[in-house]
């Protein structure tokens, strides 16, 4: 199996450098043109592919362009508008509730603090971090989605089990100026190579420093289960 660098800060630096060379144009893949669209898109992306979200929001954003329009729609109307998105019924309710809260509490604007964002329906810390980073240019933490969670555990960067605790661990070893880029690099590599079920370790730029390398390591450190 690969041999991770010590200390973890050195491993992070090497991982970031190698992924940066492999994915020089790494960035967010959701399509949006303003903060409201970004917020809606990220809420819809939970447990759903960005590709599918982009397909659905192309028409959604033409129909609903203001918080008031979301607030005045019914949950059923919004669920129908996002049909094909995972958990579209629940998310239809989130969109309606977000519209109401933005109108009632924020003068129709998307707030710029973690506390205010996570107070909105369907918005957790991960979603709030994305909106802060790409909507307000505020980098307050590291977005820990499923790809970041999987790669950071496989690469020996953390042993923490939950996104919140993984983020707390990563912000201590990833340089602050790399927080935003680190997420996008992990996402790109997680989609292209380090997939959940069948990672392509034979064609991975990180294999030599990965303690989870399939075929050499008996255990997938992401899940703790045998390969």
From TrEMBL:
EC assignment: 4.2.99.18
Cofactor(s) demanded: [4Fe-4S] cluster
Entry keyword annotation includes Acetylation: no
Binding site for [4Fe-4S] cluster: 194, 201, 204, 210
Keywords per UniProt: 4Fe-4S, DNA damage, DNA repair, DNA-binding, Endonuclease, Glycosidase, Hydrolase, Iron, Iron-sulfur, Lyase, Metal-binding, Nuclease
Keyword Metal-binding found: yes
All residue ranges annotated as the HhH-GPD domain in the record: 44-192
Cofactor: how bound: Binds 1 [4Fe-4S] cluster.
GO biological process: DNA repair
GO terms assigned for molecular function: 4 iron, 4 sulfur cluster binding; class I DNA-(apurinic or apyrimidinic site) endonuclease activity; DNA binding; G/T mismatch-specific thymine-DNA glycosylase activity; metal ion binding
Catalytic activity, reaction form: 2'-deoxyribonucleotide-(2'-deoxyribose 5'-phosphate)-2'-deoxyribonucleotide-DNA = a 3'-end 2'-deoxyribonucleotide-(2,3-dehydro-2,3-deoxyribose 5'-phosphate)-DNA + a 5'-end 5'-phospho-2'-deoxyribonucleoside-DNA + H(+); Hydrolyzes mismatched double-stranded DNA and polynucleotides, releasing free thymine
Family, as annotated: Belongs to the Nth/MutY family.
HAMAP family in the record: Nth (MF_00942)
Function per UniProt: DNA repair enzyme that has both DNA N-glycosylase activity and AP-lyase activity. The DNA N-glycosylase activity releases various damaged pyrimidines from DNA by cleaving the N-glycosidic bond, leaving an AP (apurinic/apyrimidinic) site. The AP-lyase activity cleaves the phosphodiester bond 3' to the AP site by a beta-elimination, leaving a 3'-terminal unsaturated sugar and a product with a terminal 5'-phosphate.
Listed name of the protein: Endonuclease III
